[in-house]
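Question (not urgent): is this output format expected?
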Amino acid sequence: MELIHIGFLTIDLIDIVDIALVAFIFYRLYMAMRGTIAIQIFVGLLLILAFSFVAQTLNLKAMSWILRTLTDIWVIAFIILFQPELRRILVLVSRNPVVRLFLKMNVEESIDEVVGAVTELSKKKFGALIVFVRATGIRMHTETGTRMEAIVSRPLLLSIFNPRSPLHDGAVVIKDRLVEAARCTLPLSNVTQWDGQLLGTRHRAGLGISEQADVIVVIVSEETGTVSIAENGTLYRGLTPAVLRRELKARLNTDTERSVGSIWKTLKSEA
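Got this back:
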């Protein structure tokens, strides 16, 4: 159904829907890459696409060929140079609640075992780094550690993070009811301070993996015994065992999901 007709330009309902979808996709891409170096390349690519559209509309064949060739090269360079940003976009897609409707996780028992272990580790001031994998796996990082494929249990976690254990350095990766691996190496975040406090390697590693993958990370400070959670590049510190249990159940069970922000308000009210 034709809606607008201006000279050679005809616009119908399908065109409007098409333009709206493309605009939404570019907007989401911009929001995902805002504040990164990739946004400069992204803006440049948009300008080239706009010039290419104008050249094709005016039937400038030579200019259209040059811009089309340049666009192909630009896209390839974009993919190669900015893999972390593209990975972040895919992670954001996997975090969508609609996507999680198709995911089934069996983590109830794992949560109870982890909370019990973390509570004791916190009292003893034994450092710990525990990664719960959600939608997307982190196989590349899991392979840096020692494969275990063991049922999650409190005694197992206490043994791993005992300072005398050869596995205590690095992270434990949990998928559903299994400890996939221990002593895993995680990428460090570029963030070195949080709320005015310097972050150690363990907290930076927890933040780093949460920036790149769809995970929930539980961190126990070796210096203070403070329990923290990292998710989507955000750190929440000073969690009690009760709040930690509620947080993990809310974020790992699709049928009871709540926002971290609401739980953080609960934590502040209990303090």
